[in-house]
Amino acid sequence: MINSLSGRLLILTTIFVMVAEVMIFVPSIARFREDYMLNRLERAQIASLALLADDMLDPALEDELLKNAEVFNVVLRRDEVRQLMLSSDMPQTIAATVDLRDVTAMVLIRDAMRRLFRPQNEVIRVMGEPVREAGLLIEITMETAPMRMAMIDYGLRILVLSAVISVITALLLFLAMRALLLKPIKGVVGHMQRYARAPEDARGIIEPSASVTELREAEVALQMMQTDLTQALKQKERLAQLGSAVSKISHDLRNILAAAQLFTDRIETSEDPTVRRLAPKLVGSITRAVHLCESTLAFGKAEEPGPTLTMMAMAELIEDAIDAERLASRDQNLSFAVNVPAGMHLRADPEQMYRVLSNLVRNARQALMATGQEGEIGVTAHEDDAAWHIDVSDTGPGLPPKAQEHLFTPFQGGARKGGSGLGLAIAAELVKGHGGSLQLLRTGADGTCFRVTLPKGDGAI
Fold first, then answer.
1. Domain boundary among 169, 193, 212
2. Using one digit for the tens of pLDDT, what is the confidence trace for 183-231?
């Protein structure tokens, strides 16, 4: 109970209300003490009126008047004359003087607390102004023990009343908070627990219903998070199924390509010059397809091999990636521009870098062919002391906003209708495996440009 939010709320509410009551209690005690002494001054003044009416009072009557006023002596100053009106024997000497004229609240509180925690019975002189302007000053002497007992009795009654008010207030506040806040919070927790048991079930997503603004905002945020998580889990399940299917297809396709690879040996012996010229490219394409199938199968087993780094000619790599796209765009008015410094080499995995450049060039070609207009695809390369840089650009229409938002996310970053976005995702993953980076330099109505950056040292970009 104590560790629960409701239990702690109840305890804190009671404590805070008690603190507030204590803050009220202290000035109340001070006020009670002041009223007590003013009351004794007023009684003493009334008793002194009897002496003014009759200069000679019976000692027994004078003693009775002093006892009723609960004082020992009464001094009244009238017309600049200080006169002892009533008097009796005092049990002890005067210990202190209290002047109630123009006294501040802090002094009253301080003196009240001192008197409350000082049990000794003392005789004090109290000075004040007479009521109804019956003189200039009135003084009395009185004992402190009766006043202290009256203060304690008053304080106990205040404390009991404060405790009752505190408990009632805390209980009412607890019930209100339980209905307005704790119960809705428990409802949200229940929704979270039910959703956690079956996150794929969209029926478990919370529907915001709280009337408290802050709690409703929390429910809306939770609803968005649950919706996104459910969609992500469904997509993950679809990707797992797709991965299983791709692995099976890659397995069979690898066997088919392996058989085709055997037939290419016969093609290389052909006497036809055109066949002999194109045969190496066909062999290279089939070999890459076999490697791709093997990599896909390894990826399905979560055993994607790292790149095998070797020094290779930059221009030859780029030309191989562009040749296939030239053939695919022979019926379109597209041009290719390659700008690579002569003799430039880079350290990378030949097969993986071919896939990176092939995906980037293919995306650029498909973007230009979708417009049905003329266009150019450019591949440039340069290097500095830290890295090699390869830029693949086109004069196409640019990437749509959705593709930019999910640029390297599979099945979400497609730049054209029907596109899967796998090309960029694969390219980014392969470049990352080299310790490099693939980034979008620019995109817009004048075209798109991607940059591949590969580090020369051991550090990643």
1. 169
2. 777 888 887 888 788 777 777 788 887 777 777 888 888 888 888 888 7
